[in-house]
Amino acid sequence: MSYLRRASPLHAARASLAAGYCAALILAALLTHNPLILASLWFACALVAAAAGVGRRVARSLRLSFPIVVLVVVVNALISREGLTVLARFGDWGPLGQVDPTLEAVAYGAVIGLQLAVVIAVCALASAAVDPDEVLRGVRRVSFHSALTATLATRMVPLLVADAQRIGEAQRARVRGASRAVVMRAITTNALDRAVDVAATLEVRGFATARRPARASRPLSRHDLAFGCAAILVAGLACAGALAGLAPARFYPTLSVRFGLTQAALAAALVVAALVPFTQRRGIER
Question: Is 182 in the same domain as 268?
Answer without folding.
Answer: no
